[in-house]
Specification:
The protein is globular. It is built from twelve helices and no strands. The protein has one domain: Heme Oxygenase, Chain A. It is mostly helical.
C-alpha cells in the first residue's frame, strides 16, 4: 500500500494534467455554446457513445490486468457503472436515456446515433491505449479522463464536467438537478471513483513516465471529442 506522500505525488501529477485540460481552449469553446434543444440532443447522444466507449476501455483493463487486488477494484468500478449503485438499479447508461426524455430523445435515438468523426477518433484512440499498451498506462489514462468529473479538483473552474454541463442546462433550460439524473449522478459518483485506485498506484505502476504520457494522450483525445461536439452544436440553432 502506498504511503501518503506517494498518493499525494500521483494526485498532483494526474490532477495538474486534468486541470490544464479542463482549462483548455477546446473546453472553453465547448462550454461557451448556449444550449438549445437541438444542441443538447447532439451533446447527449454523443455522450452516450462516449459512455459506451468508456465501458469498453475499462473492460480492456480488466482483461489485461494481472494484479488480483487491482482487478477487484476495476470490477467493482464497472459493477457500479453497468449493474447498479445508489444512483440507478439499471446501470448508468439508463441515466442518459432518462435525461434524454427531457429534450425529446427516445431509447431508439440512443440506439441509432452515429459518432461524429472527432468522436470516432477519440474512441479508437482510447480503446487502443487500453487494449494494446500496458494495462498500467491504460489505467492512468482512464483515471485522468474520469477525474474531469471530480469537482474537488476543479473548484476554481466551477466544478467538473458534469457539474458545469448541469449548470448550463439549468441556466439555459431552467431544469433542476433532480431532473437531470445523468449530470446529477456523475457530478458526485466520480469523486468516489477518483479515489478508488490511487492507493495502489505506486505498487503496480513500474513506469511513471510512460503512464503519465498515456494520460496526456488520453486528455488530448478528450479535448478533441469536446471540440467536435462544440463545432457540431455551433451549426445548429
Amino acid at each position: 500500500m502506498s504511503d501518503t506522500s506517494d498518493v499525494y505525488d500521483w494526485e498532483q501529477a494526474i490532477g495538474a494534467r486534468v486541470h490544464a485540460a479542463m482549462a483548455s481552449t477546446e473546453m472553453d469553446r465547448y462550454f461557451a455554446v448556449k444550449m438549445t434543444p437541438a444542441r443538447a440532443r447532439v451533446a447527449l447522444l454523443q455522450l452516450s457513445l462516449f459512455v459506451s466507449c468508456r465501458r469498453d476501455g475499462w473492460a480492456n483493463l480488466i482483461a489485461n490486468c494481472d494484479a488480483a487486488s487491482m482487478r477487484q477494484r476495476l470490477m467493482a468500478h464497472e459493477y457500479e457503472e453497468l449493474v447498479e449503485d445508489e444512483y440507478s438499479t439499471k446501470g448508468h447508461y439508463d441515466l442518459l436515456i432518462r435525461q434524454g426524455q427531457l429534450i425529446g430523445l427516445t431509447a431508439d435515438d440512443f440506439a441509432q446515433v452515429q459518432p461524429l468523426r472527432t468522436s470516432m477518433a477519440t474512441f479508437y484512440g482510447w480503446k487502443w491505449i487500453t487494449r494494446a499498451g500496458a494495462w498500467q498506462d491504460g489505467l492512468i489514462a482512464m483515471m485522468a479522463t474520469e477525474w474531469v468529473n471530480d469537482d474537488r479538483r476543479l473548484t476554481d473552474q466551477g466544478g467538473g464536467l458534469s457539474r458545469r454541463d448541469g449548470l448550463r442546462w439549468m441556466r439555459d433550460f431552467g431544469y433542476k438537478w433532480e431532473e437531470m439524473p445523468n449530470f446529477a449522478a456523475h457530478a458526485v459518483a466520480d469523486e468516489k471513483h477518483s479515489d478508488l485506485f490511487v492507493p495502489l498506484l505506486d505498487k503496480f505502476i513500474p513506469n511513471r513516465d510512460s503512464a503519465l504520457k498515456a494520460a496526456d494522450d488520453a486528455l488530448e483525445l478528450f479535448k478533441l471529442y469536446h471540440l467536435g461536439v462544440a463545432e457540431e452544436m455551433e451549426q445548429l440553432k
